[in-house]
Amino acid sequence: MGLYTELIFGASIKADNLPEEVLNVLKFLFGESEQMPVKLSNHEFFKCSRWDLITSCSSYYFAVRNTHRNISYDKISNTWNCSSRANLKNYDNEIDKFLDWIKPWIEQGSGINNMYAIVIYEESETPTIYYLGEDT
């Protein structure tokens, strides 16, 4: 049985040369589209049985129980801005696989270090923070 894990994600996604299949997945995961994408990459993330719930699961284990997910297009920066806060039992290491899949498409995270994700395991005293430019 996996541990409950909270994922806080926020990043600007490159719009230039973004494949339509990637954009369709982003729109689905971040709540703009209810249509399950037909075409998926061969990435390990999509082999997880619950990949489609990565941004929409919640439990009573964490104080913030209501999930948040959003995607919007910024015409000035020509990026898709994605954010979410959700938590789930990380049975198949879905969170790390999701972050591995999405990282090449990220244009910018937050702050000078370009932070794009915080992952908090239920039995951990400190979160894991993900930055662009770092292999985690």
Structural description of this entry:
- The chain has helices at residues 20-29, 94-102, and strands spanning 4-14, 68-74, 79-89, 106-108, 115-121, 128-131.
- It is α+β, with helices and mostly antiparallel strands and 136 residues long.
- Strands 1, 2, 3, 4, 5 and 6 form a six-stranded antiparallel sheet that branches.
| Main sheet: strands, sense, barrel | 6 strands, antiparallel
Backbone shape: globular
Distance between the termini: 24 Å
Structural class category:
alpha+beta
Number of strands: 6
Estimated helix fraction: 10-25%
Please, how many helices? 2
Write the layout of secondary structure elements.
Blueprint: E1 4-14, H1 20-29, E2 68-74, E3 79-89, H2 94-102, E4 106-108, E5 115-121, E6 128-131
Antiparallel strand pairs: 1-3, 1-4, 1-5, 2-3, 5-6
What keywords describe this structure?
136 residues, alpha+beta, 6-stranded antiparallel beta sheet, globular
